[in-house]
Amino acid sequence: MKVPDTKGNKINAIIRACRIITRMNQANPDTPKSEALYYQMLSSYYTRLRNAHDEGGFIAAHTVFFPSEILYAMDIVPMHTEMTTWMMALFLGEQAEILSAGAELGLVPEICSPHRGLAGAFALGALPRPDAMLWSNLICDNTAKSGELIMELTKCPGFFLDHPFQRSEAEDKYLVSELEDMIDFLEEKSGQKMDWDKLSEIVQKMDHQMELLREIGELRKAVPSPFPNRGFLQLLTVDYLCPGQPEAIAYLETLRDELAEKVREGKGAVSPERFRLMTLFVPPMYLMGFLEKIGQEYGAVSVVEPLFTRWAEGKLDPSRPLESVARKTAMIPERRSMYGPLSQEVLQDLIDCAEQYKVDGAVYWAFMGCRHTCATVKLFKDLLNEVDVPVMTIDCDIVDPTINSEAEIREKMEQFFEMLEDR
Q1: Does pLDDT of 337 surpass 80?
Q2: Which one, 117, 127, 217, 340, has the greatest CB density within 10 A?
Q3: 174 against 88, higher pLDDT
Q4: C-alpha span between 26 and 135 (Å, rounded)
Q5: 383 Cβ partners below 8 Å, 6+ apart?
């Protein structure tokens, strides 16, 4: 099936949504400055993508957890595939159209919906045609196969980055060699050379970015916790779309300072704070507004997401930029919990989070299209029950709202809150 040649109308719609939210925030004097910076960052990312071909740019589409720091250093325009599908679900509510198009390609419901929707979006010509497709086996089989499909749909060249399953000196060297081969591929296809000084600067900023994320994590331990439920997606967006970029640093520094001020003043994201929750896996994109609302209604706030926002300790070395890019992949929260053997260190970190963040209960969003995460439901539930943290499991889909209605999820969450109240 050939992809229609369009102007990427879904990208225009995402940009319009960001600008509308920005205008609404500007009209509200109580809107935090970090909120404005976040939507500016998002709008700038997709505006650059929309204008890339008109301005002679080279677009590299890439799957999740791909080292887009390299793309920025080469002045190549990145397009994060899964996150773009999430944004279409979050801002546009047009999941049915792209999922239906994915089904016409033969993608069954058991396949991860962001990838089904992504394939459908490309089949409809709703996204810009990439000049190259980059993908890897990090995190899952869906990701590994999605890149091949998009390359076939768009008739563009591609490069598969093979991530070692475990870590050792030999495997670290292998990953660096894979990155070197990818850079050679991109230089050949784009005609643009790697700027090693720029990559070193990005690595330095990325190191600072990870430290800011750790500082924000520490501030969220405060009682009451100052970070709103909607912030979860924003923290993911920063690394997924803009790793080591100035706009990401500006957002995180502003957010850290705002949270620090709230902690000093004893102000929480919800008032009064009644339930401190641990979030396991990613809530449905189309329910982000609902989760913020029900959190305010019941005084419930997610204080930690150990599988997604809790970065491993360690430093990056700007003098060895490619080795640092490889090292960063081992520090990503999702890599530690979803790729490779599930170590005792990861399990202990879950217990530590429950204790350090004074967690009352945990919500496990069991994304039915993700075999990795659903495989750990019982393990994590039994583990947390040992430290007297009840876990509620909600079957759901990140993009597809037909799995569970908002009313059904509300009923289940209300029952969970009642149970926590009675403890």
Answers
A1: no
A2: 117
A3: 174
A4: 38
A5: 347, 350, 351
Count of domains forming the chain: 2
User: Of the candidates 194, 228, 252, which is a domain's last residue?
Assistant: 194
- The pTM score is 0.94
Q: Which of 57-66, 89-98, 148-157, 230-239 has the lowest mean pLDDT?
A: 89-98
Burial class of residue 343, CB neighbours in 10 A (0-12, 13-18, 19+): exposed
Give the domain range for residue 186.
9-194
* In the predicted structure, residue 353 carries a pLDDT above the cut 50: yes
Q: Is residue 1 part of a domain?
A: no
Q: What is the mean pLDDT of residues 134-144?
A: 88
Q: Are residues 173 and 210 in the same domain?
A: no
Last residue of a domain, one of 194, 213, 240: 194
Q: How sure is the predictor about 400, in pLDDT bands with cuts at 50, 70 and 90?
A: confident
| 186 pLDDT more than 70 | yes
pLDDT, tens digit, for every residue of 50-100?
A: 999 999 999 999 999 999 999 999 999 999 999 998 888 888 876 888 999
Q: What is the pLDDT of residue 344?
A: 87
